[in-house]
Design goal:
2 helices; globular; Alpha-Beta Plaits; four-stranded antiparallel sheet; alpha+beta
Length: 98
C-alpha cells in the first residue's frame, strides 16, 4: 500500500503503486509563438517537480505518477500567476483506469 500526503494535510491511499497520470496546462494570456514568462514559469515548475513537460502550440503536457503531478500543481499555479498569468486551466487524467 502506498500513502501520499501533501502540504494541505490531505492523504490519499493507493492499493499498490501510485497511478500514472497525464496533466495538461493551458496558461493565459496566450500569444502564438511567444509563450512569455508566465508560461515558462509553469514549465519550470513541472521540471522542478521531476516531470518532463512538452510545450505544445496551445498547452503544456506531462506524464508522471499522480503524487508528483499533484505536488507540482501548487507551485505551477503560484509561479504562473506570479509571472503574469491571468488564467491557468488544468486537466489531469489517470492512465489505464479500470
Amino acid at each position: 500500500m502506498q500513502i501520499a500526503a501533501n502540504s494541505r494535510s490531505s492523504v490519499a491511499v493507493y492499493p499498490t503503486a501510485m497511478p500514472e497520470a497525464h496533466i495538461e496546462v493551458l496558461v493565459e494570456p496566450f500569444k502564438e509563438n511567444d509563450p512569455g514568462p508566465h508560461v515558462h514559469a509553469v514549465v519550470d515548475a513541472l521540471v522542478r517537480a521531476g516531470l518532463t513537460p512538452d510545450m505544445g502550440p496551445f498547452a503544456t503536457t506531462a506524464n508522471g505518477d499522480i503524487a508528483t503531478i499533484t505536488a507540482a500543481v501548487d507551485e505551477l499555479i503560484t509561479d504562473g500567476f506570479g509571472a503574469g498569468a491571468t488564467a491557468i486551466q488544468l486537466r489531469v487524467e489517470l492512465h489505464d483506469v479500470e
